[in-house]
Write a structure and sequence with these properties.
Elements: H1 2-13, H2 22-31, H3 33-38, H4 43-49, H5 51-57, H6 61-79, E1 92-95, H7 111-126, E2 130-135, E3 143-146, E4 152-155, E5 167-168, E6 178-183, E7 186-197, E8 200-206, H8 214-217, H9 228-249, E9 255-259, H10 265-276, H11 281-290, E10 292-295, E11 306-307, H12 309-315, H13 317-321, H14 327-333, E12 344-345, H15 346-352, E13 356-359, H16 362-371, E14 387-388, H17 395-398, H18 401-411, H19 433-461, H20 466-471, E15 481-486, H21 502-509, E16 516-521, H22 529-542, E17 551-554, H23 559-568, E18 571-574, H24 586-592, E19 597-600, H25 605-608, E20 614-617, H26 627-646, H27 656-669, H28 675-691
């Protein structure tokens, strides 16, 4: 009996379904709450670290019943057709450079990866046939440490794959399954790992295999390497290797969803395969385009991959030598007709080989149409065929567990299955103000406790400068109004806008009757000196005694810290330079938890703001430097609206007007900006159209 239930625990641990289902989390937590916390909620490590404890618990009938109960829920989830079961005839292949699914699977850098992870989770919940393809990165993305002078230090990750929710795929002979593709004219091999994401499977390619030379083993070592030639090789392996994997597994793909330009070469791989099967170039291009969706995420030209043509010719030599694809045609696919000198642009490649193109918010659609208008010179800007699907976040992942329980009590336990229904959320007003406020206060305490726990752990390591203890949050107070700013640290996101008038900010923060504090977090890319300078400035101010510990910079922002921040701060701050924020989803996650958004009107906020669920500024167009105008608007909102409202307590000590604002944020943001709404739009706008496309010629050319 105990062996059987131990196997069931292992099966649960290796399917990330557990990470968004409270019953499963509670099962693992019960095994040993202290170890569970110390290993940062990693059930794979728990099975090893608490093996003796598990052996004892499996002798306890109550615990065995709990295992059986959770396992039955899990199996019912897997085996019951979901609402989108059989909606598509064939699965869609979703390609992304990164996936943020859980902090124990460190193959993500930021928002793009978290979005990709949420798409897979929601596809699982809807039972939508989706197959994910990505990379296993042995070093993941950088870890961040802050030096005594405030400088970001990038630490390499050393991932222990045996502690991650990944499993090798084996071939018919019992060997680790490997696929290969060419770079230049050399074969590059990749071992295949699988990640179970509920009903959806994610496959990860790993070039760190014995068949490869040392330099080729390093191709998949680290996410977003700064070496352009290595980055190009990553793109080649992800595209061509990912396509080879789908063929090797025998998965009959209906179409491709390419998430940003990193995987764009999968479309070339499919084109080449069709040519090998006997299709003409015209037929092959038409079929690839009509079955492909390309999602663009950035308005920043500097963030788009473009390579010197000589590098492209060197690495793709195999296409015309071994695959007989016309060299000039291939080069034309990624060349900017307005500026051929900029090199081979993989976003242009993705756009040219995709009939369906989407931006990630309504505002971003306007920006993207302007940005890429030159590719359709005969059309008016508003006619450029770039659609949009505003991003969303996976509600079961990002909502606080206690709030979820509260919603069960007041909305009914089935609310989670229809959470994209706007009418449902009107019932949020049933929740007593005191009850909702207590949940939020508890979340705030948990966030500050987590920050101080992280500080304590760093202090025990003996490598934390005493001056950084205050700078990283030792003096944070859960009774103060708390603003949160957490995202990638880069210039256009303007993390330091709020410091524009430092004396005015001090008056806001140090008001003895209405104190305010700000928590910052985020990494700068190793090559982003402007982002690093922002971090240095924040840390310098955070350690300034005149600011009394009211500013904190929490290092090594990751998915775990994000979960606590979006539910634990009082206000989510967002002030990028418009129109450079394509969407952003962190403010959506905050809204799910009743944390109002204070944002410039960029990204998704023009669609989300209704005048009662947060604050907005910066709608006007400004010529030249807009820093002073935006900072003034931000200070004015804080002084005249945010701070007075938060500290407007009645005779019972309740900020009822603030709680009303919290409820409005939940009601207005949750159904409209959840991943369920987003994925349903992808299905209706694109996936179903792709699924209807048939090969243009007879079956004899499919062999």
């Amino acid at each position: 009996m105990s062996i059987l239930h131990l196997e069931k625990l292992k099966e649960l641990a290796y399917n990330l379904w557990w990470s968004w289902h409270p019953e499963a989390k509670d099962l693992f937590r019960r095994i040993d709450p202290i170890i569970w916390s110390e290993i940062r909620e990693n059930p794979i490590k728990l099975l090893v670290c608490a093996s003796d404890r598990i052996a004892e618990l499996l002798k306890n009938p109550d615990f065995v019943c709990k295992v059986e109960y959770v396992y039955r829920i899990y199996r019912h989830y897997l085996e019951t057709p979901g609402p989108f079961y059989a909606r598509l005839k064939r699965p869609i292949a979703f390609f992304s450079a990164e996936y943020g699914l859980h902090h124990s699977l460190y193959i993500y850098a930021g928002g793009l990866g978290l979005l990709a992870g949420d798409i897979l989770k929601e596809a699982s919940d809807l039972n939508l046939p989706l197959v994910g393809i990505g990379f296993m990165y042995p070093q993941g993305y950088i870890r961040q440490r802050i030096r005594a002078d405030g400088t970001q230090e990038e630490l390499s990750n050393h991932i222990h794959k045996e502690e991650m929710p990944v499993q090798k795929i084996y071939d018919e002979k019992g060997d680790w399954l490997k696929v290969w593709c060419y770079c230049f004219d050399e074969p590059i091999f990749a071992g295949v790992w699988k990640v179970e994401v509920g009903r959806v499977r994610l496959y990860l390619l790993d070039t760190d295999v014995e068949e490869n030379s040392t330099r080729h083993r390093r191709i998949s070592y680290q996410l977003y390497t700064s070496d352009p030639e290595m980055r190009l090789k990553q793109q080649i392996v992800l595209g061509f290797g990912g396509y080879a994997l789908l063929e090797r597994l025998g998965i009959d793909i209906g179409g491709f969803h390419v998430n940003e330009d990193y995987p764009a070469f999968v479309l070339v791989a499919r084109l080449v395969r069709l040519l090998q099967q006997g299709f003409s170039l015209e037929e092959a291009v038409r079929y690839v385009r009509h079955t492909s969706l390309f999602t663009t995420h950035t308005p920043l030209r500097a963030a788009i991959n473009a390579y010197p043509l000589e590098m492209i010719e060197k690495q793709f030599h195999f296409l015309w030598e071994k695959r007989k694809l016309d060299r000039e045609f291939f080069l034309s696919l990624g060349t900017n007709p307005e500026n051929p000198e900029e090199g081979y642009n993989t976003t242009i490649l993705g756009i040219r080989l995709s009939k369906y193109i989407n931006a990630v918010s309504r505002r971003h659609q306007e920006v993207a149409r302007k940005q890429w208008h030159f590719m359709w010179p005969d059309l008016k800007e508003e006619e450029v065929p770039i659609d949009y699907v505003t991003n969303g976040a996976h509600l079961p992942t990002w909502i606080d567990e206690d709030l979820r329980t509260l919603l069960n009590d007041y909305l009914g336990e089935d609310w989670i299955h229809v959470h994209d229904c706007e009418d449902l959320w009107q019932m949020i007003d049933r929740i007593p103000d005191e009850v909702l406020w207590k949940v939020h206060k508890d979340n705030k305490w948990e966030l500050i406790h987590l920050i101080k726990d992280r500080l304590r752990a760093r202090w025990r390591e003996g490598n934390l400068d005493p001056g950084l203890v205050v700078a990283q949050g030792a003096l944070l107070d859960p009774d103060y109004l708390t603003l949160g700013f957490a995202r990638r640290m880069t210039g256009y996101k303007r993390a330091t806008l709020i410091f524009h008038d430092l004396e005015r900010l001090k008056r806001i923060l140090l008001d003895p009757e209405r104190p305010v504090q700000i928590i910052f977090a985020g990494k700068a890319h190793p090559r982003d000196e402007e982002g690093k300078n922002m971090i240095r400035q924040i840390v310098e101010l955070a350690r300034d005694p005149s600011l009394a510990g009211r500013i904190a910079f929490v290092e090594d922002y990751d998915l775990d810290l994000a979960y606590y921040m979006v539910k634990g701060v009082d206000v989510w701050l967002n002030n990028p330079h418009p129109p450079l924020e394509a969407c952003g989803t962190s403010g959506m996650k905050a809204g799910f938890n009743g944390v109002p958004h204070l944002s410039i009107l960029d990204g998704w906020w023009p669609e989300g703001y209704n005048g009662r669920n947060g604050w907005a500024f910066g709608e006007e167009e400004i010529e030249g430097d807009r820093t002073a105008r935006d900072a003034e608007a931000l200070y004015q909102i804080l002084e005249e609206e945010v701070v007075p409202l938060y500290y407007s307590w009645d005779e019972t000590g309740m900020p009822r007007k603030w709680v009303k604002l919290m409820k409005e944020a939940i009601k207005s943001i949750t159904p409209r900006f959840c991943a369920r709404r987003m994925l349903k739009e992808y299905v209706s706008k694109f996936y179903q159209r792709i699924d209807m496309v048939e090969l243009p010629v007879g079956e004899e050319k499919r062999s």
